[in-house]
User: Which sequence fits this backbone?
């Protein structure tokens, strides 16, 4: 493999505390009681989709106000609470020696870049992509991954997408890419999201070693 595209939340970083804290603050500011518990399973989908799930409705004005409050809190302070899963940085350092690494995430591009700067990870990645990196924003990960592959003229047989959710695997398959599911993040083993033909790794070192051998 020459090109490795990583999902971000649940794959490289644990944003659960930072994101859920900013969701709680947004709903508090507007005096709205969440319709469901603020748990880690909410992490991953695009912002407006997640806010609709938490609010329990899709009123456009309410969701827009909540989104603004969330962004203000998360982009200024919340993102700083992001933590890194164990052994991720050594894995990135090892892979970056002989592979081209990219980020492809549902997270908005602005906080994504702030997090990478905060962690000092800029040198590991060739480029960082999000749904709203593109203008207009692309609708889903499958389209985003396809755009990444096309933008860099990647050979699909030499490119892998790595993530922690069913959506990530489906995005890889939609673009005829190899996929590796990581199980150290938000994946619920009982969810049925893991498909039998996908690679699966529970340790970053094992993932790095498998990629290097290919």
Assistant:
């Amino acid at each position: 493999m020459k090109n490795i595209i990583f999902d971000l939340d649940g794959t490289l970083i644990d944003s659960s505390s930072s994101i859920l804290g900013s969701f709680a603050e947004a709903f508090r500011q507007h005096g709205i009681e969440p319709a469901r518990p603020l748990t880690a399973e909410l992490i991953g989908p695009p912002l407006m989709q997640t806010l609709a799930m938490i609010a329990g409705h899709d009123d456009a004005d309410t969701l827009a106000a909540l989104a603004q409050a969330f962004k203000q809190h998360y982009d200024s302070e919340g993102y700083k609470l992001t933590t890194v899963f164990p052994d991720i940085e050594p894995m990135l350092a090892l892979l970056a020696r002989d592979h081209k690494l990219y980020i492809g995430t549902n997270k908005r591009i602005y906080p994504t870049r702030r997090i990478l700067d905060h962690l000092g990870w800029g040198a590991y990645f060739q480029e960082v992509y999000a749904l709203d990196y593109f203008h207009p924003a692309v609708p889903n990960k499958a389209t985003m991954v396809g755009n990444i592959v096309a933008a860099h003229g990647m050979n699909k047989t030499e490119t892998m997408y790595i993530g922690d959710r069913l959506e990530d695997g489906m995005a890889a398959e939609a673009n005829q890419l190899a996929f590796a599911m990581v199980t150290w993040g938000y994946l619920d083993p009982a969810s049925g999201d893991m498909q039998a033909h996908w690679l699966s790794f529970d340790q970053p070192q094992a993932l790095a070693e498998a990629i290097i051998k290919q």
In short: The CA atoms of residues 93 and 124 lie 7 Å apart.
